[in-house]
Amino acid sequence: MSTPEQFCELIRAVTDRIGGEIPGPALQERLNREFGPTSAAYRDIVEACQSAIAAGWMCEREGGGIRYGRVIEPAQDLGGYSVDVVDMDDLAGPHHTHPNGEIDLIMPLAGPARFDGQGAGWLVYGPGSAHRPTVSGGRALVLYLLPQGAIEFTRH
């Protein structure tokens, strides 16, 4: 079983490696190389998320068919990142923008699930980007690292 403290330690390993790097394609490539789906870190994060959901302290809210929740508020010891996790099954979420970027870890749970067209691994959006987060082809957990917790929901 994963505790919130243990989960934070897992995420700290990633945010320490990100450092102050601006979210973009180079960061996406590096995260997939260092913490991609074949790594022990990736497997540990997937297992921790599944354990936390089963324990009821992750993805404790539900709306529009999406289970979600902010797991960690922006934290200095995590480089200023907040951590959110969503559980989506073949649907699109609400449109939003990422003032400071968004770093996503895609964890397929059922079927060949893809998030915004990408399978298991990391997907990084740069500052000022926007999207309507969409899981297709099955069910997936998606972990969002948001610099300073910044996200702005829009009406699209």
Please, could you describe this protein's structure?
By secondary structure, this protein is α+β, with helices and mostly antiparallel strands. The chain is built from three helices and ten strands. Strands 1, 2, 3, 5, 6, 7 and 9 form a seven-stranded antiparallel sheet that branches. β1 and β2 (66-75) form a beta hairpin. α1 (4-18) packs antiparallel against α3.
Give a short synopsis of this structure.
Strands 1, 2, 3, 5, 6, 7 and 9 form a seven-stranded antiparallel sheet that branches. The protein contains three helices and ten strands; from the N terminus they run H-H-H-E-E-E-E-E-E-E-E-E-E. It has 156 residues and is α+β, with helices and mostly antiparallel strands.
What does the secondary structure layout of this molecule look like, with pairings?
Blueprint: H1 4-18, H2 25-35, H3 40-55, E1 61-63, E2 66-75, E3 81-92, E4 96-98, E5 102-110, E6 114-115, E7 121-125, E8 129-131, E9 134-147, E10 152-153
Antiparallel strand pairs: 1-2, 2-3, 3-9, 4-8, 4-10, 5-7, 5-9, 6-9
